[in-house]
Write a structure and sequence with these properties.
Length: 220
């Protein structure tokens, strides 16, 4: 299993479940180095300070917030960690909603396995996982991580909880302006389109079934 990236507790009502988060995916893409085409020498990226016109090391690099043009305020990691966020060490569940109500465009792509921390946490962990699975619902929660509060979705997969980071409402663009305006279609045209969709569904089901591993037959 991957190493934990965060530790805290799931919190809702009077229930607290100690948990750890770890990455739910791993990157297996092929990586290339940048090279000089004439002699295949490695190309390096160097960091320069504009004010002193010199290269700086990683230890000299910090964070700065631009309050106005050409005016930066230094922000340290310690200051970010000390921000008074109510969810600093908690995944605070704020609602339970049907899974189908979540727009996929809100998923950021960051997913984490939620592992219960300690034997005492096992029972409440199983209870919430089975309750979500039985009601086909997901939990919406808030989580403070890396100095900012994030919105996460908790769902069940194979009996375990998975956390998906969501976009906030103001981070999702309204696509309505991209829809064609005043385009008329008839019921018969819609019916023809449905006939094109139906075979596509069957093909998708066959593809999914073909990907399932064959079960071994037990000997007598």
């Amino acid at each position: 299993m991957p190493r934990p990236l965060w530790s805290g507790a799931i919190s809702f009502g009077l229930v607290t479940i100690p948990v750890k988060l770890m990455s739910a995916t791993e990157d297996r893409s092929v990586r290339f180095h940048q090279v000089h085409t004439e002699d295949l020498g490695r190309v390096r990226v160097r960091r320069y300070c504009e004010a002193e016109d010199r290269e700086v090391s990683g230890a000299e690099i910090g964070k700065g917030y631009e309050v106005s043009k050409d005016t930066l305020v230094a922000i340290t990691d310690e200051e970010l960690e000390q921000m008074p966020l109510p969810t600093a060490k908690a995944i605070e569940i704020v609602a339970f909603v049907p899974a189908a109500s979540i727009d996929p465009v809100r998923l950021t792509g960051d997913s984490y396995l939620v592992q219960y921390d300690g034997q005492v946490a096992a029972k409440p962990y199983v209870l919430i996982a089975r309750a979500l699975a039985r009601n086909t619902k997901v939990a919406i929660a808030k989580l403070a991580w890396h100095g900012r509060e994030r919105l996460v979705l908790l769902r069940v997969r194979d009996g375990a909880l998975i956390a998906h980071v969501l976009k906030w409402d103001d981070e999702v663009r309204d696509p309505s302006e991209l829809a064609p305006k005043e385009t008329k279609v008839t019921d018969s045209e819609i019916d023809e389109a449905l006939q094109l969709v139906a075979p596509a569904k069957k093909t998708a089901k066959k593809t999914a079934a073909a990907k399932k591993p064959a079960r071994r037959q037990r000997g007598a």
